Amino acid sequence: MGEVFTGSFTQQEPLPEASIAAAEAVLRHGRLHRYNTAEGEIAETALLEEEFAARTGAAFCLAVASGGYALGCALRACGVTPGDTVLTNAFTLAPVPGAIAGVGAVPVLVGVTDALVIDLEDLAAKLDRARVLLLSHMRGHICDMDRLMDLCDAAGVTVIEDCAHTMGAAWNGRPTGRWGLMGCFSTQTYKHVNSGEGGLLISDDAEAMARAVLLSGSYMLYGRHRAAPPPEAFAELRYAVPNISGRMDNLRAAILRPQLRALTRQAGRWNDRYRKVAEGLADVPGLVVPARPAAEQFVASSIQFLLPDRSETEVAAVVAGCAARGVELKWFGAAEPVGFTSDYGSWRYAPQDRLPATDRVLAGLLDMRLPLTFSLDDCALIARIIRAVVTEVLTPARGAA
Ligand SMILES: *Cc1c(COP(=O)(O)O)cnc(C)c1O
Protein backbone atom coordinates (compact mmCIF):
# COMPACT_ATOMS: atom_id res chain seq x y z
CA MET A 1 0.00 0.00 0.00
CA GLY A 2 3.01 2.32 0.27
CA GLU A 3 3.77 4.86 2.99
CA VAL A 4 1.51 5.35 6.01
CA PHE A 5 1.28 8.32 8.38
CA THR A 6 0.70 7.57 12.06
CA GLY A 7 0.47 11.06 13.64
CA SER A 8 -2.67 12.62 15.12
CA PHE A 9 -4.49 15.40 13.28
CA THR A 10 -6.14 16.60 16.48
CA GLN A 11 -3.11 16.76 18.80
CA GLN A 12 -1.99 20.31 19.52
CA GLU A 13 1.24 21.19 21.25
CA PRO A 14 1.33 21.26 25.05
CA LEU A 15 0.85 24.72 26.55
CA PRO A 16 4.05 26.71 27.10
CA GLU A 17 5.64 26.58 30.55
CA ALA A 18 4.79 30.26 31.07
CA SER A 19 1.08 29.44 30.62
CA ILE A 20 1.31 26.56 33.06
CA ALA A 21 3.03 28.77 35.65
CA ALA A 22 0.47 31.56 35.15
CA ALA A 23 -2.40 29.09 35.49
CA GLU A 24 -0.90 27.72 38.68
CA ALA A 25 -0.67 31.21 40.17
CA VAL A 26 -4.38 31.81 39.48
CA LEU A 27 -5.32 28.41 40.89
CA ARG A 28 -3.31 29.14 44.05
CA HIS A 29 -4.95 32.51 44.73
CA GLY A 30 -8.39 31.27 43.72
CA ARG A 31 -9.68 34.51 42.20
CA LEU A 32 -10.88 33.02 38.93
CA HIS A 33 -13.83 35.33 38.31
CA ARG A 34 -12.67 38.35 36.34
CA TYR A 35 -14.16 40.86 38.78
CA ASN A 36 -12.77 39.08 41.85
CA THR A 37 -9.56 41.04 42.40
CA ALA A 38 -7.47 41.82 45.47
CA GLU A 39 -6.76 45.42 46.42
CA GLY A 40 -4.66 46.97 43.63
CA GLU A 41 -4.69 43.78 41.54
CA ILE A 42 -5.39 43.90 37.80
CA ALA A 43 -7.25 40.81 36.62
CA GLU A 44 -5.57 38.54 34.07
CA THR A 45 -8.67 38.96 31.89
CA ALA A 46 -8.33 42.75 31.84
CA LEU A 47 -4.63 42.43 30.98
CA LEU A 48 -5.38 39.98 28.17
CA GLU A 49 -7.88 42.44 26.69
CA GLU A 50 -5.38 45.26 26.90
CA GLU A 51 -2.66 43.17 25.25
CA PHE A 52 -4.90 41.88 22.45
CA ALA A 53 -6.14 45.41 21.71
CA ALA A 54 -2.51 46.58 21.50
CA ARG A 55 -1.55 43.67 19.28
CA THR A 56 -4.33 44.28 16.77
CA GLY A 57 -4.31 48.08 17.05
CA ALA A 58 -7.96 48.13 18.16
CA ALA A 59 -9.20 50.79 20.57
CA PHE A 60 -11.21 48.25 22.57
CA CYS A 61 -11.20 44.53 23.37
CA LEU A 62 -13.53 42.24 25.31
CA ALA A 63 -12.72 38.66 26.34
CA VAL A 64 -15.67 36.26 26.38
CA ALA A 65 -16.59 32.62 26.93
CA SER A 66 -16.27 31.37 23.33
CA GLY A 67 -15.86 32.42 19.72
CA GLY A 68 -19.51 31.62 19.12
CA TYR A 69 -20.48 33.85 22.04
CA ALA A 70 -18.35 36.66 20.55
CA LEU A 71 -20.28 36.36 17.25
CA GLY A 72 -23.70 36.49 18.93
CA CYS A 73 -22.61 39.32 21.20
CA ALA A 74 -21.30 41.32 18.21
CA LEU A 75 -24.55 40.81 16.29
CA ARG A 76 -26.56 42.10 19.27
CA ALA A 77 -24.12 44.96 19.88
CA CYS A 78 -24.54 46.00 16.23
CA GLY A 79 -28.30 46.15 16.68
CA VAL A 80 -29.40 42.88 15.06
CA THR A 81 -32.82 41.92 16.45
CA PRO A 82 -35.12 38.91 15.97
CA GLY A 83 -36.48 38.63 12.45
CA ASP A 84 -33.64 40.63 10.87
CA THR A 85 -31.75 39.11 7.97
CA VAL A 86 -27.94 38.81 8.16
CA LEU A 87 -25.67 38.09 5.19
CA THR A 88 -23.02 35.44 5.76
CA ASN A 89 -20.82 32.91 3.94
CA ALA A 90 -22.30 29.69 2.57
CA PHE A 91 -18.84 28.14 3.09
CA THR A 92 -18.23 28.36 6.82
CA LEU A 93 -18.77 26.29 9.94
CA ALA A 94 -21.99 25.78 11.88
CA PRO A 95 -21.27 28.30 14.72
CA VAL A 96 -21.58 31.16 12.21
CA PRO A 97 -25.15 30.64 10.93
CA GLY A 98 -25.82 29.33 14.45
CA ALA A 99 -24.87 32.68 15.99
CA ILE A 100 -27.29 34.41 13.60
CA ALA A 101 -30.06 31.96 14.45
CA GLY A 102 -29.18 32.40 18.14
CA VAL A 103 -30.27 36.04 18.09
CA GLY A 104 -33.46 35.08 16.23
CA ALA A 105 -32.19 36.47 12.93
CA VAL A 106 -32.21 34.78 9.53
CA PRO A 107 -29.01 33.99 7.59
CA VAL A 108 -28.85 34.92 3.91
CA LEU A 109 -26.00 32.91 2.40
CA VAL A 110 -23.43 34.28 -0.01
CA GLY A 111 -21.46 31.95 -2.29
CA VAL A 112 -17.79 30.99 -2.30
CA THR A 113 -15.28 31.29 -5.16
CA ASP A 114 -12.75 28.66 -6.17
CA ALA A 115 -10.17 30.75 -4.26
CA LEU A 116 -12.30 29.80 -1.20
CA VAL A 117 -13.30 33.35 -0.33
CA ILE A 118 -16.71 35.02 -0.32
CA ASP A 119 -17.96 35.70 -3.86
CA LEU A 120 -18.01 39.50 -4.09
CA GLU A 121 -20.30 39.44 -7.16
CA ASP A 122 -22.86 37.36 -5.30
CA LEU A 123 -22.42 39.62 -2.25
CA ALA A 124 -22.97 42.76 -4.35
CA ALA A 125 -26.18 41.27 -5.71
CA LYS A 126 -27.50 40.55 -2.19
CA LEU A 127 -26.41 43.68 -0.30
CA ASP A 128 -29.95 45.08 -0.39
CA ARG A 129 -31.22 42.08 1.56
CA ALA A 130 -29.67 42.87 4.98
CA ARG A 131 -28.09 45.64 7.07
CA VAL A 132 -25.31 43.43 8.47
CA LEU A 133 -22.74 41.04 6.95
CA LEU A 134 -21.19 38.46 9.26
CA LEU A 135 -18.07 37.77 7.18
CA SER A 136 -16.29 34.50 7.93
CA HIS A 137 -12.60 34.30 7.00
CA MET A 138 -13.22 30.60 6.67
CA ARG A 139 -10.14 28.37 6.93
CA GLY A 140 -7.98 31.48 6.96
CA HIS A 141 -8.77 32.58 3.39
CA ILE A 142 -9.13 36.37 3.23
CA CYS A 143 -11.01 38.04 0.37
CA ASP A 144 -10.08 41.41 -1.15
CA MET A 145 -11.00 43.39 1.97
CA ASP A 146 -10.54 46.76 0.28
CA ARG A 147 -13.19 45.85 -2.28
CA LEU A 148 -15.47 44.19 0.23
CA MET A 149 -15.45 47.25 2.50
CA ASP A 150 -16.07 49.58 -0.46
CA LEU A 151 -19.11 47.51 -1.46
CA CYS A 152 -20.50 47.30 2.08
CA ASP A 153 -19.81 50.94 2.94
CA ALA A 154 -21.54 52.10 -0.23
CA ALA A 155 -24.59 49.99 0.62
CA GLY A 156 -24.62 50.99 4.31
CA VAL A 157 -24.05 47.37 5.39
CA THR A 158 -22.23 46.90 8.72
CA VAL A 159 -19.49 44.27 8.64
CA ILE A 160 -18.72 41.93 11.54
CA GLU A 161 -15.69 39.69 10.97
CA ASP A 162 -15.44 36.09 12.10
CA CYS A 163 -11.68 35.69 12.61
CA ALA A 164 -11.78 32.23 14.22
CA HIS A 165 -9.20 31.07 11.63
CA THR A 166 -7.27 34.32 11.13
CA MET A 167 -5.82 35.36 14.47
CA GLY A 168 -2.45 36.86 13.51
CA ALA A 169 -3.42 37.29 9.84
CA ALA A 170 -3.89 40.47 7.81
CA TRP A 171 -4.97 41.85 4.43
CA ASN A 172 -2.65 44.50 2.99
CA GLY A 173 -1.02 44.90 6.39
CA ARG A 174 -4.27 45.57 8.27
CA PRO A 175 -5.15 42.73 10.68
CA THR A 176 -8.38 40.83 10.16
CA GLY A 177 -10.95 41.98 12.68
CA ARG A 178 -9.89 45.60 12.06
CA TRP A 179 -11.83 46.09 8.82
CA GLY A 180 -15.39 45.70 10.01
CA LEU A 181 -17.16 47.38 12.92
CA MET A 182 -16.28 44.42 15.15
CA GLY A 183 -13.91 41.47 14.89
CA CYS A 184 -14.53 38.14 16.65
CA PHE A 185 -11.84 35.58 17.55
CA SER A 186 -11.89 32.14 19.14
CA THR A 187 -9.35 30.75 21.62
CA GLN A 188 -10.79 27.24 21.45
CA THR A 189 -8.28 24.37 21.28
CA TYR A 190 -8.22 24.05 17.48
CA LYS A 191 -7.60 27.75 16.78
CA HIS A 192 -4.35 29.76 16.96
CA VAL A 193 -4.19 30.10 20.73
CA ASN A 194 -5.60 27.50 23.09
CA SER A 195 -7.59 27.96 26.28
CA GLY A 196 -9.99 25.09 25.66
CA GLU A 197 -12.84 27.55 25.14
CA GLY A 198 -12.79 31.31 24.85
CA GLY A 199 -13.33 34.29 22.57
CA LEU A 200 -12.12 37.83 21.96
CA LEU A 201 -14.01 40.75 20.46
CA ILE A 202 -12.33 43.91 19.15
CA SER A 203 -13.69 47.24 17.90
CA ASP A 204 -12.96 50.94 17.61
CA ASP A 205 -16.64 51.77 18.09
CA ALA A 206 -17.29 52.94 21.67
CA GLU A 207 -21.05 52.44 21.62
CA ALA A 208 -20.96 48.95 20.10
CA MET A 209 -18.22 47.89 22.51
CA ALA A 210 -20.01 49.36 25.55
CA ARG A 211 -23.05 47.29 24.54
CA ALA A 212 -20.87 44.19 24.16
CA VAL A 213 -19.27 44.68 27.60
CA LEU A 214 -22.71 45.04 29.24
CA LEU A 215 -24.12 42.09 27.28
CA SER A 216 -21.20 39.87 28.35
CA GLY A 217 -22.19 40.24 32.00
CA SER A 218 -20.17 43.14 33.39
CA TYR A 219 -22.92 44.25 35.82
CA MET A 220 -21.82 47.77 36.75
CA LEU A 221 -18.16 46.75 37.03
CA TYR A 222 -17.12 47.86 33.53
CA GLY A 223 -14.78 50.39 35.16
CA ARG A 224 -12.43 47.49 35.92
CA HIS A 225 -11.81 46.86 32.23
CA ARG A 226 -8.69 48.41 30.76
CA ALA A 227 -9.55 48.10 27.07
CA ALA A 228 -13.18 49.25 27.29
CA PRO A 229 -14.74 52.59 26.36
CA PRO A 230 -14.79 55.34 29.03
CA PRO A 231 -17.62 55.39 31.65
CA GLU A 232 -19.58 58.01 29.68
CA ALA A 233 -20.18 55.44 26.94
CA PHE A 234 -22.09 53.32 29.49
CA ALA A 235 -24.12 56.11 31.10
CA GLU A 236 -27.39 55.44 29.24
CA LEU A 237 -26.70 51.98 27.86
CA ARG A 238 -26.34 50.39 31.29
CA TYR A 239 -30.10 50.71 31.79
CA ALA A 240 -30.98 49.48 28.32
CA VAL A 241 -28.70 46.52 27.59
CA PRO A 242 -29.56 43.10 29.06
CA ASN A 243 -26.94 40.92 30.79
CA ILE A 244 -26.44 37.74 28.74
CA SER A 245 -23.56 36.26 30.70
CA GLY A 246 -20.62 34.98 28.69
CA ARG A 247 -17.53 36.29 30.46
CA MET A 248 -14.03 34.90 30.25
CA ASP A 249 -12.34 33.90 33.52
CA ASN A 250 -8.85 34.65 34.83
CA LEU A 251 -7.60 31.07 34.44
CA ARG A 252 -8.16 31.10 30.68
CA ALA A 253 -6.80 34.61 30.34
CA ALA A 254 -3.65 33.62 32.24
CA ILE A 255 -3.10 30.67 29.91
CA LEU A 256 -3.62 32.85 26.83
CA ARG A 257 -1.33 35.80 27.57
CA PRO A 258 1.98 33.93 27.04
CA GLN A 259 0.50 32.31 23.89
CA LEU A 260 -0.30 35.74 22.42
CA ARG A 261 3.32 36.73 22.90
CA ALA A 262 4.35 33.65 20.88
CA LEU A 263 1.70 34.05 18.17
CA THR A 264 3.93 35.55 15.46
CA ARG A 265 6.49 32.78 15.86
CA GLN A 266 3.78 30.10 15.86
CA ALA A 267 2.22 31.63 12.74
CA GLY A 268 5.57 31.25 10.98
CA ARG A 269 5.75 27.60 12.01
CA TRP A 270 2.20 26.97 10.69
CA ASN A 271 3.07 28.58 7.39
CA ASP A 272 6.26 26.47 7.11
CA ARG A 273 4.09 23.38 7.40
CA TYR A 274 1.54 24.72 4.93
CA ARG A 275 4.25 25.48 2.35
CA LYS A 276 5.76 22.03 2.77
CA VAL A 277 2.43 20.32 2.02
CA ALA A 278 1.53 22.80 -0.76
CA GLU A 279 4.94 22.21 -2.36
CA GLY A 280 4.41 18.45 -2.22
CA LEU A 281 1.01 18.83 -3.89
CA ALA A 282 2.16 21.11 -6.70
CA ASP A 283 1.58 19.66 -10.17
CA VAL A 284 -0.50 16.67 -9.08
CA PRO A 285 -2.76 16.19 -12.13
CA GLY A 286 -6.39 16.92 -11.22
CA LEU A 287 -5.53 18.55 -7.87
CA VAL A 288 -5.53 22.32 -7.30
CA VAL A 289 -4.17 24.14 -4.25
CA PRO A 290 -5.80 27.58 -4.49
CA ALA A 291 -3.26 30.35 -5.16
CA ARG A 292 -3.01 33.00 -2.44
CA PRO A 293 -2.74 36.69 -3.31
CA ALA A 294 0.30 38.67 -2.16
CA ALA A 295 -1.92 41.03 -0.13
CA GLU A 296 -3.06 38.10 2.04
CA GLN A 297 -0.82 37.64 5.08
CA PHE A 298 -2.31 34.32 6.14
CA VAL A 299 -1.73 31.99 9.07
CA ALA A 300 -2.31 28.52 7.69
CA SER A 301 -3.26 26.16 10.49
CA SER A 302 -4.96 24.01 7.86
CA ILE A 303 -4.71 23.41 4.12
CA GLN A 304 -7.42 23.06 1.46
CA PHE A 305 -7.27 21.67 -2.04
CA LEU A 306 -9.75 21.04 -4.82
CA LEU A 307 -10.42 18.09 -7.08
CA PRO A 308 -12.44 20.10 -9.60
CA ASP A 309 -15.27 18.46 -11.53
CA ARG A 310 -14.72 14.98 -10.12
CA SER A 311 -17.53 12.60 -9.32
CA GLU A 312 -18.68 11.89 -5.76
CA THR A 313 -17.29 8.39 -6.17
CA GLU A 314 -13.83 9.69 -7.08
CA VAL A 315 -13.68 12.22 -4.23
CA ALA A 316 -14.95 9.62 -1.77
CA ALA A 317 -12.27 7.21 -3.00
CA VAL A 318 -9.55 9.82 -2.37
CA VAL A 319 -10.86 10.45 1.15
CA ALA A 320 -11.01 6.70 1.87
CA GLY A 321 -7.61 6.00 0.29
CA CYS A 322 -5.94 8.73 2.34
CA ALA A 323 -7.71 7.60 5.52
CA ALA A 324 -6.41 4.06 4.96
CA ARG A 325 -2.89 5.52 5.01
CA GLY A 326 -3.49 7.64 8.11
CA VAL A 327 -4.23 10.97 6.40
CA GLU A 328 -7.49 12.51 7.61
CA LEU A 329 -9.20 14.68 5.02
CA LYS A 330 -12.49 16.48 5.61
CA TRP A 331 -14.81 16.73 2.64
CA PHE A 332 -17.00 19.81 2.69
CA GLY A 333 -19.08 18.56 -0.22
CA ALA A 334 -20.17 15.33 1.48
CA ALA A 335 -23.93 14.86 1.42
CA GLU A 336 -24.23 14.27 5.18
CA PRO A 337 -22.56 16.44 7.85
CA VAL A 338 -19.59 14.58 9.43
CA GLY A 339 -17.47 15.86 12.31
CA PHE A 340 -17.01 19.59 11.92
CA THR A 341 -17.77 19.69 8.20
CA SER A 342 -21.18 20.82 7.09
CA ASP A 343 -22.76 21.68 3.82
CA TYR A 344 -25.07 24.69 4.09
CA GLY A 345 -27.97 22.41 3.16
CA SER A 346 -27.64 20.74 6.56
CA TRP A 347 -28.60 24.01 8.31
CA ARG A 348 -32.28 23.29 7.81
CA TYR A 349 -33.30 25.99 10.29
CA ALA A 350 -32.19 28.45 7.60
CA PRO A 351 -33.51 27.11 4.30
CA GLN A 352 -31.75 28.59 1.25
CA ASP A 353 -31.90 28.20 -2.49
CA ARG A 354 -28.97 26.13 -3.73
CA LEU A 355 -25.97 28.11 -4.97
CA PRO A 356 -24.80 26.14 -8.03
CA ALA A 357 -21.34 27.76 -8.36
CA THR A 358 -20.71 27.16 -4.64
CA ASP A 359 -21.95 23.58 -4.88
CA ARG A 360 -19.46 22.96 -7.65
CA VAL A 361 -16.57 24.23 -5.46
CA LEU A 362 -17.68 22.38 -2.33
CA ALA A 363 -18.17 19.10 -4.24
CA GLY A 364 -14.42 18.81 -4.77
CA LEU A 365 -13.15 20.61 -1.67
CA LEU A 366 -10.92 18.73 0.75
CA ASP A 367 -9.53 20.10 3.98
CA MET A 368 -6.79 19.01 6.35
CA ARG A 369 -5.56 20.31 9.69
CA LEU A 370 -1.88 21.07 10.22
CA PRO A 371 -1.24 20.91 13.97
CA LEU A 372 2.15 22.17 15.11
CA THR A 373 2.92 18.71 16.47
CA PHE A 374 3.61 17.72 12.83
CA SER A 375 7.25 18.01 11.78
CA LEU A 376 8.19 19.26 8.31
CA ASP A 377 9.09 15.66 7.45
CA ASP A 378 5.58 14.61 8.50
CA CYS A 379 4.20 17.27 6.14
CA ALA A 380 6.31 16.01 3.24
CA LEU A 381 5.17 12.45 3.95
CA ILE A 382 1.49 13.50 4.09
CA ALA A 383 1.85 15.27 0.74
CA ARG A 384 3.45 12.15 -0.81
CA ILE A 385 0.54 10.04 0.43
CA ILE A 386 -2.09 12.42 -0.95
CA ARG A 387 -0.21 12.61 -4.25
CA ALA A 388 -0.06 8.82 -4.51
CA VAL A 389 -3.74 8.31 -3.65
CA VAL A 390 -5.00 11.08 -5.93
CA THR A 391 -2.87 9.80 -8.79
CA GLU A 392 -4.11 6.26 -8.23
CA VAL A 393 -7.79 7.25 -8.05
CA LEU A 394 -7.80 9.76 -10.90
CA THR A 395 -5.65 7.82 -13.36
CA PRO A 396 -7.75 5.31 -15.30
CA ALA A 397 -6.37 1.80 -14.78
CA ARG A 398 -4.39 0.53 -17.76
CA GLY A 399 -6.39 -1.86 -19.82
CA ALA A 400 -9.71 -0.62 -18.38
CA ALA A 401 -12.47 -0.26 -20.92
C1 LIG B 1 -14.49 27.63 15.82
C2 LIG B 1 -15.23 28.56 14.97
C3 LIG B 1 -16.09 29.52 15.50
C4 LIG B 1 -16.57 29.56 16.91
O1 LIG B 1 -15.65 29.40 17.88
P1 LIG B 1 -15.96 28.61 19.24
O2 LIG B 1 -14.94 29.23 20.14
O3 LIG B 1 -15.76 27.17 18.99
O4 LIG B 1 -17.36 28.95 19.66
C5 LIG B 1 -16.62 30.45 14.62
N1 LIG B 1 -16.36 30.41 13.31
C6 LIG B 1 -15.59 29.47 12.77
C7 LIG B 1 -15.34 29.51 11.29
C8 LIG B 1 -15.00 28.51 13.58
O5 LIG B 1 -14.25 27.54 13.03
UniProtKB/TrEMBL annotation:
It comes from the Bacteria. Coiled coil: none annotated. This is dTDP-4-amino-4,6-dideoxygalactose transaminase. Belongs to the DegT/DnrJ/EryC1 family. It holds the Pfam family DegT_DnrJ_EryC1. SUPFAM superfamilies: PLP-dependent transferases. One of its GO terms (biological process) is polysaccharide biosynthetic process. Keywords: Pyridoxal phosphate. InterPro entries: DegT/StrS_aminotransferase, PyrdxlP-dep_Trfase, PyrdxlP-dep_Trfase_major, PyrdxlP-dep_Trfase_small. The active site is at K191 (proton acceptor). It comes from Loktanella atrilutea. One of its GO terms (molecular function) is pyridoxal phosphate binding. The modification N6-(pyridoxal phosphate)lysine is found at K191.
